[in-house]
Amino acid sequence: MQPDQGIGAVAAEQYGVFTRAQALDAGFTDKVIANRISKSIWGAVRPGLYAIAGAPETFHRRVLGGVLVSGVGASASHRTAGFLQGLIPDEPALVDVTVPHGTHYRSRSGLVVHQAVVLEARDVCLVAGIRTTTTTRTVVDLAGMLGPLDLETVNDDALIGRLTSIPTLRACIERVGANRRGMGTLNRLLDDREFGVPESELERVFLRLVKSYRLPRPERSCVDRAATRASTSPINGSGSSSSSMVDGGTARAARSGPIPAGRMPSSSTGCCPCASRGTTSRANPGMWPTRCAERSRSAHPSPLQPPQGGDGLRCAFGRSDAYWIRSTILNIGR
């Protein structure tokens, strides 16, 4: 294979960028590399990092370039990994990269390099062809960087999207060090989420109000995950469904999509199977929130009267739920 063909194949898989070492491996000499740059056939992105002329500059290219110049074992992390995995809505201005402790790579323009004492193979995955920390490790890393409210949103999105789980997060905290910055906040958040994970910002605000005024914790409606799998059609006839637990940056793309709000197994009562008191997420960690099909405004004659039995606060609010929550907040404000 000719050097141009070799480096072209490499650049095609790396968003148009490649390192000096890759160019030398393809058969180019230092003199030829300098000649290509002087003729603008290649562009110098960073010291030791080049791009094919005309290759579009994208966020993924910036991230992969930062990972490549940070050496062996480097991975996109923190806010950058959160954005790649869909946990952070806004594109970060800087690229965060984590490298093993003891490497000589340092932060530079547009690139923030973090050194990790613990960075194992299970902490890394591929997202869009880029070495990235897994969703679990990303949430743990972001705990030391985000404020409590932003951390709540990131953590809840990861749990609701089934990109990680509470036991997996706790195990990662133990591995990387429970004394790290933000670990106390994340542990307290996980303790609270043992009772159920809110699916919207409105519910998070409501639960904060309930906690701040020391009101009784609302009960939640839940369905058995196994029963939910039985009520959904298999994917490609393989017998698997969209409710499987996965961990990693490519998990969101691998899922067939969340189960629609309100879908549940049929029962003789027309209500969700958790109608009996005591069937909660803490009692059965394999259960996840949904709404009871029989909810109505008449079920809550008083704005401050909590739902009875197991028919608790629904995560994806319906009209009656929103009415009850709005009335409760207004009464608290008085």
Q: Your description of this structure?
A:
It is a single chain. The protein is an alpha+beta fold. The chain contains 13 helices and ten strands. Helix 5 (78-84) crosses helix 6 (135-142), helix 6 (135-142) packs across helix 8 (166-176) and helix 8 runs antiparallel to helix 9 (183-193). The longest helix has 15 residues, at 319-333. The radius of gyration is 25 Å and the shape is elongated. Mean pLDDT is 75; it is low at 227-320.
Brief summary of the model shown:
The protein has 334 residues and is an alpha+beta fold. It has helices at residues 3-12, 20-25, 30-38, 59-69, 78-84, 135-142, 148-160, 166-176, 183-193, 201-212, 225-231, 251-254, 319-333; strands at 17-19, 42-46, 49-52, 75-76, 95-100, 111-116, 124-127, 130-133, 222-224, 287-289.
Draw up the topology in text:
Blueprint: H1 3-12, E1 17-19, H2 20-25, H3 30-38, E2 42-46, E3 49-52, H4 59-69, E4 75-76, H5 78-84, E5 95-100, E6 111-116, E7 124-127, E8 130-133, H6 135-142, H7 148-160, H8 166-176, H9 183-193, H10 201-212, E9 222-224, H11 225-231, H12 251-254, E10 287-289, H13 319-333
Parallel strand pairs: 5-6
Antiparallel strand pairs: 1-3, 2-3, 4-5, 7-8, 9-10
Helix pairs in contact: 5-6, 6-7, 6-8, 7-9, 8-9
| Elements, N to C (H/E) | HEHHEEHEHEEEEHHHHHEHHEH
Strands, count: 10
pLDDT averaged over residues? 75
Structure annotation, total helices: 13
Biggest sheet, spatial arrangement of strands: 1-3-2
**Shape field:** elongated
Sheet bearing the most strands, described?
Answer: 3 strands, antiparallel
The end-to-end span amounts to 77 Å
